[in-house]
Design a protein that fits this description.
Blueprint (H helix, E strand, L loop, with lengths): L8 H6 L5 H6 L8 H10 L11 H7 L5 E3 L5 E3 L1 H4 L3 E4 L2 E4 H4 L6 H9 L9 H4 L8 H14 L1 H16 L17 H4 L1 H4 L2 H4 L3 H16 L3 H16 L15 E3 L20 H10 L4 H8 L38 H6 L4 E5 L2 H4 L13 H12 L5 H16 L12 E5 L14 H4 L10 H10 L6 H15 L1 H18 L5 H5 L2 E3 L20 E2 L2 H8 L3 H6 L3 H6 L6 H14 L10 H6 L8 E3 L9 E4 L12 E2 L31 H4 L6 H4 L9 E2 L2 E2 L10 E2 L10 E4 L6 E14 L9 E6 L5 E7 L3 E8 L3 H4 L21 E4 L19 E7 L5 E7 L5 H6 L3 E7 L18 E9 L23 E4 L2 E2 L1 E5 L3 E8 L6 E7 L6 H4 E6 L2 E8 L5 E3 L4 E7 L7 E6 L17 E7 L23 H5 L2 H12 L5 E8 L2 E4 L9 E7 L3 E8 L5 E5 L3 E7 ...
Parallel strand pairs: 15-28, 17-20, 19-24, 25-29, 28-36, 37-40, 39-46
Antiparallel strand pairs: 1-2, 3-4, 4-12, 5-8, 6-7, 9-11, 10-11, 13-14, 16-17, 17-18, 20-22, 21-23, 22-47, 23-24, 25-26, 26-27, 29-34, 30-33, 30-35, 31-32, 31-34, 35-36, 37-38, 40-44, 41-43, 41-45, 42-44, 45-46
Helix pairs in contact: 9-10, 9-15, 10-15, 10-25, 14-15, 17-24, 17-25, 20-21, 23-24, 24-25, 40-42
Organism: Chlamydomonas reinhardtii
Family: Belongs to the peroxidase family. Ascorbate peroxidase subfamily.
InterPro entries: Cu-oxidase_C, Cu-oxidase_fam, Cupredoxin, Haem_peroxidase, Haem_peroxidase_sf, Peroxidases_AS, Peroxidases_heam-ligand_BS
Length: about 1300
């Protein structure tokens, strides 16, 4: 089923009438001046009749001749304002002429509300402000109802109370310039304009809510803020913590005066304040570290958590399908302390140069539909009311179209990195690591919180660090301890710097939230449970006509219903009589206490409306008190914020800069340092140069001092051929361990690496096409073996499992899902996993680590190696085209690295390498800038870029810098093997992104005695912001010379073909498929579109990441083809790898002519997505089903979540069933294949998972278990789509069809008899 979408909700909800709360609070137009805003606060909601206001009240309100004077001295005529016969608040209106007959005090009540003034010291409202006699219980109940309706308002009130109370200039306290607890935060535009307050317009909404409550109950905004912020934790904890007890002695002092001046600037600590500054700030205000740490716990409500539920690392709520009103940001609990105390936090101060390294966020302007859906999920999770969600969605729609500017978030000056490394160490001080490890992958909180967290984790020995540590750990272990400390600290915080009214100074007033000095009438809720046509009981209750009793008591019941209790015993008789008349006797809401003691206590308030046009009486429900509690609301047309009007979404601009691959750079630049040598080249050892913010090694390198060498060849441990068949399996065994070796560091020290079988790169596999392989990887990275190395354990290898985790991906193989190297298919220390590979076509692949979260680290430190599948006739294959069998081969992998002063590979994930990693050393097969000697004949090169982030643009040049490769080399293949036909080598250079592979042949004939250089040309368009150090342009040196016995007389030469050959990808994609796909691209149509960008500080695909929404495409059909369009959502570039498949690059930027010749009509599994670019790909899905990954192969981006998955499913239910191979319509074939795919669909299929190494017999040891492991893929025919032979579990009919190359284009031809290797 298609996913439910959120973006379309925006206009629909915004067009619906907003409920009473938000309709009355949401902004309709910007407020331009302070006077205008204060007038809004002064005059309240809307008007009432002028003539009925008593002279006494008029004097108190400053009402003179129909005018009032604001607190800033502006005289305003309010005659018309007070004389409207119909008064409205939001979507609730009152017809006064129908109402004032039974409310003689109506004019005074409405005038109090409408002409309410902030309780500022120099005006009458402040001078006479008396908190005694106010209806505090109703204030509390109103706040409670408000927050239950929209929980995010609770978080805003709590945050506002903090900022308002603590933004003081302690040097001016006490006094008028002190500030603090005076509502200036909510009464000044300057405060509300701060970015953290203005987001979503919600600070303005909170301010309006506070002023509305204050005007309704005639109290100060400062008191409103203090009382409501005390109620917030009660609502969000579901009553667990009650700052206001409701009974007993008063606890919260009231009587605060308001202040219209902005809070003093610079009196709140910056977000990046360290622990010392943080402690100093609170101590100056009289708070201990324990109290301050408790108060910071309110950051449990921080809204950057958005949809995160917190029960698992990937537990995110989807508001399109679920109720997200209880996500973690709305739960008052001690998860804040469990988070900040969970290892491991790193804090790195950033210079302006460092901050420039951080990529810009993908703008909302021009977002695609999936991106906007992801953003909408984030935003709607931050609200619990439909109306507030509508506001957020409407804002998104406007920003997306360019009708409104996106809020600018200032850059952070400190980088916080939170990893799961050593996560279980938190168990030592109470973290439940079973539940909390792994913790969330994003740091939700501020830098202040990170400093507190480091202290909790054991960083620092200063007194303030110890005090914070003790407090935070106590709150981790005991929720009640935090609740109690927060409660007392909060009461202290909102009172310490308050300015009290004269009356409150003389007569201090403390409330518990249960006080009720006056009341109104019993609620309609007592008589009927739901809104609608009023029942007889409701009418009877509100009229006070309790039949006979009402008459006998002389109207006492009518008075009792209004809260006027001449004789309590009479009210009790009224209550009993009324209860006896209810359908459900003894309604618990109708009590004598509610009637005569505290009748104004507000529950889910339902109001008795008088009559509609037909004379019917209704009960209308609202969740927020908008006027006097017994108003009679009737509906009016909605007045929401202006809805987005729709229209075209502006397209993202594409970089269509023309290029010419046939033009070589000037010879003078080929061998020259890129940039100013004085700024990119260290002058001596010990000097570190920063280029574009990335540090170099502290060494002055001399290239071309070491000899080129090939990695060792992987050795077969065992071999098996199934009797009576041509089916074989060869086994290899690879140990993974750490070792230190000399790599040529000028300081002469060995460099630690992670290795496959002790070498970097790992052993090279050379496998014959058609021979299946079993590769057992033994993880020797146990705690004991890691001791004394730079490497550590990591999640999930903690607790019952241990060591450093690995997962191996054979990049270039269409492997079954459990053998593909799924990022969470973890093999821990002292465990082994058997991987089975089909080797179904010749091609150039590699294997590398793919462990979730630490792929970049494991691969950078050495875990990668080459894996080549060949088809040479001399090695038992069918033969290779173009006379390639006789041409010497050079398999090379290129990567860069940087060393520290101790010759260790430098990797600072919390610092300069948090988004990309670039080094100043170019390695070829693990050797820095090697020198190779090659004969003067045709040479064949297989090239792989295995760096973390750096792309290469490779050229051969002569010693004088002139181009060589453009005229003497040809590109013959790539990831999926040889091309249809060779193409000329681009003179400008062969561009290779991370993980891309190409095969090249070059004619070195006649060059004996000459020298060539392989160089890395700079491309300022495709290598945006990539640093080039002193020798980054140099890769290796080649001396062309005959060997010791001389040059061969007539060596085999490359023979260009006369016609195109059929590649394996062509066998499963015919020209009709290709033409249809090209037609789609011509019409700018895609089966799926994925935009690679950055939002909210992390890398995303269509706005989502691995943990927020792993599956990006759940309905890909088995053996179907699709057109995927990839886009960049910002200014960076991304090498995109799609597992399982080979694909063709159809177009760049919607233009088939922008595809580079060397990447056209060649099977690929990685493609470079340039900055501000679009790529259309034709993918043939097959041959397997299951869930597979696709991601950016910049390994830093991959580790930081720019990775998602797709699921290949049974074809009939897929989106693209019509593009399936004909074999998918054959029930016999489908049934035969399903036998395997129903088992191997799961990438973490338990039967294929890791096992304790101690339980396995080494593959080199002949044994029954070794034979069983070798024979398994043949006996079970797990790769039956390639090799439908040798298994008894394939029916004869199924085998016959799968063995027919016409029916099954995946069938692997095996041209010669095969045998087991010795």
């Amino acid at each position: 089923m298609p996913q439910k979408r959120l973006r379309g909700v925006s206009l629909a909800l915004a067009a619906v009438a907003l409920a009473v709360l938000l309709a009355g609070l949401l902004p309709s137009c910007p407020v331009r001046t302070v006077d205008a805003q204060l007038l809004s606060g002064l005059t309240g909601i809307l008007g009432t009749l002028l003539n009925g206001v008593s002279s006494t009240l008029a004097a108190t309100l400053g009402l003179v001749g129909g005018t009032v004077t604001t607190v800033t001295g502006v005289v305003v005529d309010v005659t018309a304002y007070l004389s409207q016969p119909v008064q409205c608040s939001g979507s609730v209106c009152v017809k006064l002429d129908d109402y004032d007959q039974s409310h003689s005090d109506l004019a005074d009540v409405n005038a109090k509300v409408l002409l309410w003034s902030p309780k500022v010291a120099h005006v009458t409202a402040g001078k006479t402000y008396d908190p005694r006699g106010k209806d505090w219980v109703s204030v509390v109940a109103t706040c409670r109802e408000l927050f239950q309706y929209e929980k995010r308002l609770a978080t805003f009130f709590i945050r506002a109370s903090f900022h308002d109370s603590m933004a003081v200039d302690v040097s001016q306290c006490p006094g008028p310039n002190c500030g603090g607890a005076d509502a200036s935060l909510l009464l000044s535009i300057e405060e509300m304009a701060r970015p953290e307050n203005a987001y979503d317009d919600f600070s303005l909404i909170a301010a309006r809510a506070a002023k509305k409550i204050a005007s309704f109950f005639d109290i100060s905004v400062a008191d409103t803020l203090a009382v409501c912020a005390a109620v917030g934790p009660e609502v969000l904890s579901k009553g667990r913590i009650k700052i206001l007890t409701g009974t007993g002695a008063g606890v919260l002092r009231v009587g605060r005066l308001d202040n219209i001046r902005p809070s003093p600037p610079g009196n709140l600590p910056p977000n990046h304040a360290d622990l010392t500054s943080f402690a100093k700030f609170w101590k100056e205000r009289g708070f201990s570290e324990a109290e301050a740490t408790a108060l910071m716990g309110s950051h449990a409500l921080i809204d950057t958590q958005a949809c995160f539920n917190g029960r698992r690392i990937n537990d995110y709520c989807d508001p399109a399908t679920s109720d997200c009103s209880n996500v973690r940001m709305f739960r008052w609990e001690n998860h804040y302390y469990k988070d900040i105390c969970s290892p491991t936090l790193s804090i790195t101060p950033l210079t302006p140069e460092d901050m420039a390294l951080d990529p810009v966020e993908t703008p909302i302007l021009g977002m695609s539909d999936p991106e906007l859906d992801a953003e909408a999920r984030q935003e709607t999770c931050k609200f619990t009311s439909k109306e507030a969600q509508a506001v957020a969605l409407n804002n998104l729609a406007q920003v997306r179209r360019g009708a409104r500017a996106e809020a600018v978030v200032p850059p952070e000056t400190v980088a916080v990195t939170w990893t799961n490394k050593n996560c279980r160490a938190g168990a030592a001080y109470g973290i439940n690591v079973t539940q909390h490890c792994p913790h969330a992958y994003l740091w939700f909180y501020t830098t202040n919180d990170a400093y507190l967290g480091q202290a909790c984790q054991g960083v620092g020995s200063a007194p303030e660090a110890v005090a914070v540590r003790n407090a935070a750990r106590s709150y981790v272990n005991n929720q009640a301890t935090w609740d109690a400390t927060y409660r007392s600290a909060y009461l202290k915080m909102v009172s310490t710097f308050a300015t009290w009214s004269q009356i409150a100074t003389t007569n201090p007033v403390y409330i518990n939230g249960g006080e009720c000095a006056s009341g109104t009438h019993l609620e309609a809720a007592c008589a009927q449970a739901s809104p609608g046509l009023a029942t007889a009981d409701t009418k009877s209750l509100y009229s006070g006509s309790y039949i006979l009793l009402g008459s006998l008591l002389g109207g006492a019941c009518r008075d009792c219903a209004k809260g006027v209790c001449p004789q309590p015993s009479q009210c009790g008789q009224c209550v009993n009589t009324f209860n006896n008349r209810l359908l459900v006797p003894r309604n618990p809401l109708v009590t004598e206490a509610n009637c005569c003691s505290c009748a104004s206590l507000l529950r889910s308030t339902r109001y008795n409306a008088t009559r509609d046009a037909s004379g019917n009486t209704y009960v209308t429900s609202t969740t927020f008190v908008v006027r006097w509690p017994d108003v009679m609301p009737i509906s009016q047309p909605a007045q929401p914020i202006p809805a987005d009007q729709g229209g075209a979404v502006p397209p993202r601009p594409l970089d269509t800069t023309p290029f010419n691959d046939g033009v070589a750079p000037p010879a003078s630049t080929s061998l020259a340092t890129v940039g100013d040598a004085s700024s990119v080249c260290p002058s001596a050892h010990g000097t570190i140069i920063k280029v574009r913010g990335f540090p170099s090694s502290p060494f002055k390198w001399t290239p071309f001092t070491q000899t080129y060498a090939n990695p060792p060849r992987a050795q077969i441990a065992a071999s098996y051929v199934k009797p009576g068949t041509n089916m074989t399996v060869d086994a290899y065994e690879i140990d993974i361990f750490a070792t230190a070796k000399n790599i040529g560091c000028p300081a002469g020290k060995p460099t630690w690496s992670l290795t496959y079988n002790g070498s970097v790169p790992g052993p090279s596999f050379r496998v014959l096409k058609g021979r299946q392989t079993l590769v057992r990887f033994n993880n020797r990275l146990t705690p004991a073996n890691l001791s004394g190395t730079p490497f550590s354990e990591f999640h999930p290898c903690e607790g019952t499992r241990s060591g450093r985790p690995i997962s191996v991906h054979y990049h270039g193989s269409a492997s079954l899902a459990p053998y593909d190297g799924w990022a969470e298919d973890t093999t821990c220390g002292a465990e082994s996993k058997d991987y089975y590979y089909p080797n179904w076509r010749a091609g150039f692949g590699w294997y590398h680590d793919h462990q979730l979260d630490i792929t970049s680290e494991n691969a950078y430190f050495g875990l990668s190696g080459l894996y080549t599948t060949v088809d040479k006739a001399a090695e038992g294959g069918c033969g290779e085209p173009w006379n390639l069998d006789g041409i010497p081969e050079w398999d090379m992998q290129f990567k860069d690295a940087v060393l520290d002063s101790n010759c260790q590979l430098y990797y600072d994930r919390a610092g300069p390498h948090r988004n990309n990693l670039y080094g100043d050393i170019n390695f070829v097969n693990g050797i820095p800038w090697p020198v190779a000697t090659m004969e003067p004949r045709w040479q064949r090169f297989r090239w792989l870029v295995s760096s973390v982030a750096r792309p290469y643009k490779l050229r051969f040049v002569n010693a004088d810098g002139t181009d060589f490769s453009g005229g003497k080399c040809q590109v013959i293949g790539g990831e999926a093997g040889t091309r249809r036909s060779p193409v000329s080598y681009p003179a400008a250079g062969l561009f290779m992104g991370v993980a891309e592979r190409y095969e090249v042949v070059c004619d070195f004939s006649g060059l004996s005695g000459k020298t060539l250089f392989l160089v890395n040309a700079y491309d300022d368009r495709r290598m945006k912001d990539v640093p080039y150090y002193c020798h980054s342009h140099l890769v290796m040196k080649i001396n062309v010379a005959c060997n010791s016995t001389g040059c061969p007389a007539s060596p085999p030469a490359f023979q260009p073909p006369s016609s195109s050959r059929v590649t394996p990808l062509d066998r499963v994609l015919n020209q009709t498929d290709i033409d249809r796909a090209l037609a789609m691209v011509a019409n700018k149509q895609c089966t799926r579109t994925f935009r690679f960008g950055r939002r909210h500080g992390h890398w995303v695909i269509n706005g989502e990441s691995w943990h927020t929404a792993r599956v990006a495409a759940s309905d890909v059909g088995h053996n179907t083809w699709e057109v995927w369009c990839l886009e960049t959502g910002g200014g960076w570039f991304h090498p995109i790898h799609i597992h399982l498949v080979d694909f063709f690059v159809l177009a760049r930027n919607w233009d088939v002519n922008q595809v580079h010749d060397y990447e056209r009509w060649i099977g690929k599994d990685v493609v470079q997505l340039d900055p501000s670019a679009h790529i259309a790909l034709l993918l043939r899905f097959g041959a397997h089903r299951g869930e597979y990954m696709f991601h950016c192969h910049n390994l830093m981006h991959e580790d930081f979540e720019m990775m998602r998955s797709f699921h290949v499913m049974p074809t009939p239910g897929s989106r693209t069933a019509s593009t399936a191979l004909p074999m998918q319509s054959d029930p016999t074939i489908v049934t035969t294949l399903n036998y395997v795919y129903d088992l191997y669909d799961d990438p973490v299929y338990p039967a294929a998972g890791p096992k304790p190494t101690s339980t396995l017999t080494p593959l080199r040891t002949p044994s029954a278990s070794t034979t069983a492991a070798l024979s398994m893929p043949i006996d079970r025919a797990i790769h039956r789509i390639y090799y439908p032979y040798g298994s008894t579990n394939i029916t004869s009919a199924g085998a016959a069809k799968l063995a027919n190359p016409v029916t099954n284009p995946w069938l692997v031809p095996i041209c010669k008899p095969q045998k087991a290797y010795p």
